[in-house]
């Protein structure tokens, strides 16, 4: 039974057991949670401490510049995606995932011991930005490998729910990052938090990376890649082939993610945390309660992400996404009216409503992307589409939102900006055919290479 659609069979014909699948799911969840914890702990710290500790000489613009460093890392995600896509299609998904985990962990731990501006001057923010760039390169390579390990191991009727396993690493990473930061506001309150408390979550990354590395090392390589390797059918220049034949598909797939990512980065990018806790702003809430509210909303995000992956196996990826865009639009218009009440309960409600739509436009993404691209260039296709979507969407969303509020004194224009990004995601989704259940193995490259874009007959 070789060359099948990977509905439970390995390339050698051995039936993949339920235990094998559980191991893959567990490894992708743990690995992506650790990766995104590292990535989001930076964004959380930007909204709370980095403006003051690393960019204070910039005065009124310190917060704006600090948020810009969140976006700078996104500019290097395509580099990570290009490298990971090339080596992932040549050397395997598992090898790339091990290196992205190590790179992210090392960069995060080094931020935890980085001297501040007061100690070493301009060198401090320069080193901070360089370490954030390394995080961006790692994040650019991580996602594609994680989702392919999950989806390519899955039975074809359960790709949505299997693909949702690395997707929940985002809300879990946000939950962990916000929860640890909130805990540190209790352990090291007030000035102690600014002096040393914020460093502990970064240093904790060392332990998490060791756990993630151990778990990932136990997982078998993707069966699709194993068969490509056995047949010696790996693409020589996968990135060149991707852009030569599928450049329009990459752009449309990127815009699907951009619509989700711009809205999601209101919390994962640290904007709501900074906006709600700014003592000179209109709300001025305490750090701890805001962080706990964000952590709580990560739970609703996790649940909706898992559910969306599951339901997409029943009603299709495209239909699930369309429902998600409607829900996300509702959440966008509810967010700031609730946040601006200055009540912590209302802030949580606004974030919880928003995350329902975010889950529906994120949970099916792993399966959707995997079913869009041919096997031999799939790692490159999903990684680069994701990286470009992250730049177009979340890269500078917190910076844009900060600039809008500074210019207008109101969050109303921010709402319209997020609504516009949501509509872009909806339009991009409508341009794609639903390919749920398409065979993923190398025997079906011809079928996979037919363009999924409406109105485009060939790739």
Automatic annotation (TrEMBL):
<feature type="transmembrane region" description="Helical">
    <location>
        <begin position="290"/>
        <end position="312"/>
    </location>
</feature>
<feature type="domain" description="Major facilitator superfamily (MFS) profile">
    <location>
        <begin position="24"/>
        <end position="437"/>
    </location>
</feature>
<protein>
    <submittedName>
        <fullName>MFS family permease</fullName>
    </submittedName>
</protein>
<feature type="transmembrane region" description="Helical">
    <location>
        <begin position="344"/>
        <end position="363"/>
    </location>
</feature>
<feature type="transmembrane region" description="Helical">
    <location>
        <begin position="96"/>
        <end position="117"/>
    </location>
</feature>
<feature type="transmembrane region" description="Helical">
    <location>
        <begin position="414"/>
        <end position="432"/>
    </location>
</feature>
<keyword id="KW-0813">Transport</keyword>
<dbReference type="Pfam" id="PF00083">
    <property type="entry name" value="Sugar_tr"/>
</dbReference>
<keyword id="KW-0472">Membrane</keyword>
<dbReference type="InterPro" id="IPR036259">
    <property type="entry name" value="MFS_trans_sf"/>
</dbReference>
<dbReference type="GO" id="GO:0005886">
    <property type="term" value="C:plasma membrane"/>
</dbReference>
<dbReference type="GO" id="GO:0022857">
    <property type="term" value="F:transmembrane transporter activity"/>
</dbReference>
<dbReference type="InterPro" id="IPR005829">
    <property type="entry name" value="Sugar_transporter_CS"/>
</dbReference>
<feature type="transmembrane region" description="Helical">
    <location>
        <begin position="237"/>
        <end position="258"/>
    </location>
</feature>
<keyword id="KW-0812">Transmembrane</keyword>
<feature type="transmembrane region" description="Helical">
    <location>
        <begin position="172"/>
        <end position="190"/>
    </location>
</feature>
<feature type="transmembrane region" description="Helical">
    <location>
        <begin position="319"/>
        <end position="338"/>
    </location>
</feature>
<dbReference type="InterPro" id="IPR005828">
    <property type="entry name" value="MFS_sugar_transport-like"/>
</dbReference>
<feature type="transmembrane region" description="Helical">
    <location>
        <begin position="129"/>
        <end position="151"/>
    </location>
</feature>
<feature type="transmembrane region" description="Helical">
    <location>
        <begin position="196"/>
        <end position="216"/>
    </location>
</feature>
<feature type="transmembrane region" description="Helical">
    <location>
        <begin position="61"/>
        <end position="84"/>
    </location>
</feature>
<dbReference type="InterPro" id="IPR020846">
    <property type="entry name" value="MFS_dom"/>
</dbReference>
<keyword id="KW-1003">Cell membrane</keyword>
<dbReference type="InterPro" id="IPR011701">
    <property type="entry name" value="MFS"/>
</dbReference>
<keyword id="KW-1133">Transmembrane helix</keyword>
<feature type="transmembrane region" description="Helical">
    <location>
        <begin position="384"/>
        <end position="408"/>
    </location>
</feature>
<dbReference type="Pfam" id="PF07690">
    <property type="entry name" value="MFS_1"/>
</dbReference>
């Amino acid at each position: 039974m070789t060359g099948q659609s990977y509905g439970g069979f390995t390339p050698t014909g051995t039936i993949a057991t339920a235990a094998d699948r559980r191991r893959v799911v567990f490894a992708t969840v743990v690995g992506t949670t650790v990766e995104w914890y590292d990535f989001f702990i930076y964004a959380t710290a930007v909204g709370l401490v980095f403006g003051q500790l690393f960019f204070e000489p910039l005065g009124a613009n310190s917060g704006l510049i600090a948020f810009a460093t969140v976006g700078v890392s996104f500019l290097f995600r395509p580099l990570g995606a290009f490298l990971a896509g090339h080596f992932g299609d040549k050397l395997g998904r598992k090898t790339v995932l091990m290196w992205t985990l190590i790179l992210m962990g090392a960069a995060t731990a080094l931020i935890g011991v980085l001297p501040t501006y007061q100690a070493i001057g301009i060198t401090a923010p320069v080193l901070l930005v360089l370490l954030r760039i390394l995080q961006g390169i790692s994040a650019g390579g991580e996602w594609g490998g994680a989702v392919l390990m999950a989806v390519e191991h899955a039975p074809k009727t359960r790709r949505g729910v299997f693909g949702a396993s690395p997707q929940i690493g985002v809300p879990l990473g946000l939950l962990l990052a916000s929860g640890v930061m909130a805990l540190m506001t209790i352990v090291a309150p007030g000035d102690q938090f600014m002096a040393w408390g914020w460093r502990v979550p970064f240093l904790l990354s060392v332990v998490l990376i060791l756990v993630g590395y151990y778990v990932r090392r136990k997982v078998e390589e993707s069966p699709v890649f194993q068969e490509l390797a056995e047949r010696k059918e790996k693409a020589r220049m996968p990135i060149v082939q991707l852009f030569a034949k599928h450049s329009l598909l990459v752009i449309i797939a990127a815009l699907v993610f951009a619509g989700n990512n711009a809205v999601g980065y209101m919390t994962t990018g640290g904007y709501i945390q900074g906006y709600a806790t700014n003592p000179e702003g209109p709300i001025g809430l305490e750090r701890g309660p805001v962080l706990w509210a964000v952590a709580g909303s990560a739970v609703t995000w996790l649940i909706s992400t898992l559910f969306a992956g599951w339901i997409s196996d029943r009603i299709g990826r495209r239909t699930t996404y369309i429902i998600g865009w409607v829900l996300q639009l509702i959440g966008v218009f509810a967010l700031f009216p609730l946040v601006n009440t200055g009540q912590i309960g209302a802030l949580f409600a606004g974030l919880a409503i928003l995350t329902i739509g975010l889950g529906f436009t994120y949970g099916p993404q792993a399966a959707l992307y995997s079913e869009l691209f041919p096997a031999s260039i799939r790692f490159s296709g999903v990684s680069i589409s994701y990286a470009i979507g992250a730049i177009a969407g979340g890269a500078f969303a917190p910076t844009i939102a900060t600039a809008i509020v500074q210019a207008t004194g109101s969050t109303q224009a921010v709402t319209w900006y997020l609504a516009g990004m949501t509509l872009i995601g909806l339009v991009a989704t409508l341009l794609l055919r639903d390919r749920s259940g398409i065979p993923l193995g190398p025997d079906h490259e011809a079928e996979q290479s037919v363009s999924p874009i409406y109105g485009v007959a060939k790739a």
